[in-house]
Amino acid sequence: MIAAAAIGVTLIYASILDAKERRVPHKTWRPALAIAIPAAVWVYGLTILADWQAAAGYLVLVAVFCGFFYLFQAVNLFGGADAYALIIITACIPFYPLEPFFGASPLGFFPFSVLTNAVLINIAAPVAILAKNILEGNRAPLPCLLLGFPVDGRSIQNEFGFVMEDIEEGEDGRLVRRFVGFKESLGRIVRGERRLYTKDLRLHPKDYQRELSLYRKAGKVWISYGIPFIIPITAGFLTALFMGDILFVIMKTIAGM
Predict the structure, then answer these.
(1) Mean pLDDT of 152-167
(2) Higher pLDDT, residue 231 or 104
(3) Strands (E), the chain
(4) Residue 92 in contact with residue 3, Cβ under 8 Å?
(5) What is d(CA 156, CA 224) in angstroms, rounded to the nearest whole number?
């Protein structure tokens, strides 16, 4: 509970930072780590003394999950702050700190519940965005309808998200625009090519004068919704801590248990 309290408070603060500045410095985690690491070492020690085989199993899970989170960050599937948060949660809180309202999952591995809760919570945003686009009559490929919406090109730098369209000007002065599909976007990320974020347009307008001019001419430009994943991670952490594993609860409900 000591580690959970320290990390929980830091997650909330990191979510606020990421929402405002799209950046969470590593030093943000130092106070939490100073508290959580000794508490985690104490818990690991007690677990090894009580049942070294069970402790070894949990240590393997911790190593595998931390390895995957690091790998996802290395290939740009996770942001650095997101991976860092998940690694800290996994390493410092492998067990449920308390019995949640709906009970712990059968696996009993707290970080897995945090991750599944975060993913399920994150899924709710695209559903709401799809409904918004349908109500407003916005037209785009289905993945874009789920993940983004059009904004005014004249003030795009004041929004939050990344640009979902490639816009070029032809020789006749007409704009040629196309949506960047999920497969292409993922390929660019894996190759280490940065997506164009609205934050880049806001912080470095001189470097993107051509793009800003095209966006003004385009009128409306599609961008992704700008919710940092660390916010669902924080929500997943708090719901796993107090409510339990959402996926396990859904499966129990469907099974009529």
Answers:
(1) 87
(2) 231
(3) 148-152, 165-169, 175-179, 220-224
(4) yes
(5) 12
Distance CA 224, CA 148 (A): 4
207-243 in b/e form (b: 16+ CB < 10 A) is ebeebbebbeebeebbbbbebbbbbbbbbbbbbbbee
Of all helices (H) and strands (E), which one includes residue 12? Answer: helix 2-21
How far apart are the C-alpha atoms of 240 and 102, rounded to whole Å?
10
How do 175-179 and 165-169 pair as beta strands?
antiparallel
What is the b/e burial string over 160-189, where b = at least 16 CB atoms within 10 angstroms of the residue's CB? bbbbbbebeeeeeeeeeeebbeeeebeeee
Contact of 176 with 170, CB cutoff 8 Å: yes
pLDDT at 92: 93
- For 28, other C-beta atoms within 10 Å of its C-beta total 18
CB 182 within 8 A of CB 142: no
Closest alpha carbon to 63 in 85, 38, 94: 94
- Predicted model pTM: 0.72
d(CA 73, CA 192): 11
Show Cβ contacts of residue 161 under 8 Å, excluding neighbours closer than 6 positions. 148, 197, 198, 223, 224, 225, 226
Lowest-confidence segment of 63-67, 158-162, 208-212, 237-241 by average pLDDT: 158-162
